Amino acid sequence: MKAFIYAVEREAKPLLDIFKAKFEKRVGQLEIYSVNKQELHFCVCLGGIGKVASSSSISLLESVIDEPIEEIINVGVAGSINPSKVGILDAVISTSLAQHDVDTTPVGDPAGLISGINKVYFDADENIRKKLVKAASNVGVKPVEGIVASGDQFIATDEQRKRISDTFGAITVDMEAAAEAQVAYMLGIPFCSLKVISDANEHAKEYRENEKKAAELAAKIILEYLQMD
Ligand code: ADE
To answer: CA 36, 95, 51, 18 torsion: positive or negative?
Structure first.
């Protein structure tokens, strides 16, 4: 089964509405919806905001559904940290993902290194990535492929953007994708993220203005993605 993991209901609503997804269950803060229509069979999850909520949502999902998860796509909105390359309402499809707030540099590690696993970057699955790029183009949304950096912070200043761009080569920031990528990696599940850009300059204001439209475009891309199977 494919799993589309969102942070919150307002981001997922357009997709839930298109398919009239059925509410299945709540496990802790995770809400699981399912779609079983003709050949389409997938779940949409609301995992919560931030790295802990979103990554634990994958573990919870795995433990309560009785079929294997064949792929995970983290869907939602995100901020651009390089507005000249990635604009509002562009679709960013991850090539790899890092956690910009993980820092054991004082003991000699590179920034963002996940100790134990010994990785800074988790690669997105190539097949999912290519399909998402095509799906975005097909529905007229500009796809941009690049590194997504996640952390438990809403990024709103030039200083933060510069650090994340310089340190991780990231083009986009959110608060969930890379944490989910880590769990998917640990569980051996193919993973990619699709984020439509809500904010690029005046982050808090633009986020409020564009979140709804960005979520609608993300749903259009996922609809197309599902029809490409
Ligand atoms: N999600 C949407 N915009 C964001 C930003 N600027 N920082 C972190 N997460 C976001």
So the answer is: negative
The Cα–Cα gap between 92 and 195 comes to 5
**Do 34 and 43 contact (CB within 8 A), yes or no?**
yes
Q: Give the model confidence (pLDDT) of 186-208 as tens digits.
A: 999 999 999 999 999 998 999 99
Do residues 74 and 190 make contact, with C-beta atoms less than 8 angstroms apart?
no
78 lines ligand 1 (CB under 6 A): yes
pTM of this structure? 0.97
How far, in Å, from the CA of 175 to the mean position of ligand 1? 7
- Residue 205: CB partners within 8 Å, gap ≥ 6? 199
- Decide: residue 144, CB within 10 A, 0-12 exposed, 13-18 middle, 19+ buried: buried
What is the 198 CA–ligand 1 centroid distance (Å)? 8
